[in-house]
Every structure is written in structure tokens, then in C-alpha cells.
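Schema walk-through. Below, the input block comes first and the output block second. Nothing else is stored per chain. Lengths vary across the set, and this one has 264 residues.
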Amino acid sequence: MIDRVDTFVGQARLQFRIIGALLLRELATRYGRDNIGFLWLVGEPLLFCFGVMVMWSIIRPPYDHGIAVIPFVVTGYLPLTLLRHNIGQGINCIKVNSNLLYHRQITLLQLFLSRAILELAGVSLAFVVVVLAMIPFGLMEPPKSLSMVYIGWFLLDWIVFGMAMIFGSLAQFSEVVERAMNLATYVMIPLSGCFYMIAWLPYQYRANVMKIPLVNCEEMIRAGFFGEFYPTYYNIGYAVAWGLGLTFLGLILLSLVRKRVEID
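--- output ---
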């Protein structure tokens, strides 16, 4: 029994070291060591988010359906950024890192995990910075339920991670997938629920829109920020089921792709 525990602990430490090394490599190759370097991991989503906030503040009224425009944009645009960055990095993950697979201890799952962790860390920190910067000026209020924000945020990341594995794997079988993803990410904007809420839709369409898992996660995040005074609609179990299903399918495709890469 003790030997099994020691073996498990040893393997876990090995996996953490490998993923940590891949994270450092990804940071160095993507952002370099010049200028602000890895700070662009947070700075990039920050700049885009502030740009979108300024634009929406100019072209939209201060309140829409009783919700201030700034917190509405922040709680919509940054989850969308997490979605697009994860899928964008997942599409070419295998292609640009295939040479690392010659090391027997490195797996495709570790490659995708390292990129997903990097994107989660960067966009999450940007989210925190934006909220903390807005609160002192009265442009946002602290979340009413941090736990609900966490649940929605990490369920969103889980679902997107599964999607990244699936699209990244399919891109190895056909270049059409890689080329079509630019269009697909734009299609995902209305499907993500980032710029609307289910309560704003006609009643007869709400059940169908709730079948989109990303919308459920977005509603959870906004429920955590806006509280019970703004109606939100979501199903946590449904989002978890999608996370499990997409992850399972992604792992199957990764196993098929690994054989293909080894053959090549």
C-alpha cells in the first residue's frame, strides 16, 4: 500500500514538473524576455477589455435593461476572451509542439493543459485587475456571490478546454478545420451569451438558448456579480455534463492523433 502511494506521489510530482516546464517554455516562446515579456499575458486582455468598455460607453446608454453598461461588458467580454484565446491556442498546439513528443514522458494532454493553464491565469488576472480598478470609481460593485462567479468561470474554462482539445485534434486530420476556426470563433460570439442575457429574450426562446452550455456559464458569472435582483437562468449540472462529455471526446481524439503523429 505504501509503495503504491509513493508511486502515485512520484508520478504526480513528475507531471507537475513537466507541466511547469512546458508553461515556462510557452511563456518564453510566446512573449520573449524583452520589454515587459510575460506581463503581456495579462496586459493583452486588459487592453482589449478597456478598449471595448470605452467603445460601449460611447455608443450605448449608461444602463441597458437596468444593468450598468461597464459591468455588463466586463462580465461578457472577458469570458469571451477566455473562450477565443483557448480555442485559438488549441488549434495549433500540436503542430507547433510536435517535436516535443519525441520525449516519451511528454503527452499531448500535457501540451494542451499547459496552454489552457496559461490562458486561464492570464485572463483571470485581467478580470481581477479590471474589477478592482473599477470598484473605487463606482463603475462596478463587488460580486454578490464569489462562489457563483468561480463556478461559472471554471465551468466555462472546463468546457472550452474540451473544445480546444477536440478542435486541435481535428485540425491534424484536415486543414479545413484550422482555416474554418476563424469564422467559427465569430459565430461563437452570439452563442456564448456574452452580449445578452436570457432574461432579455422572448420567453418561448429561452429554453432553446439554455441548451447552449456556454450561455449557462455566462449566466452563472453574471448571477454572481449582479445577485438575485437581476434574473438569471442556468443549469450547473448541464454545464458539468458538457464538460465531462467534451473532455472525454477530446481525450479519445488525442489518443488517435498521438498514433498519427508517431506514424508521421
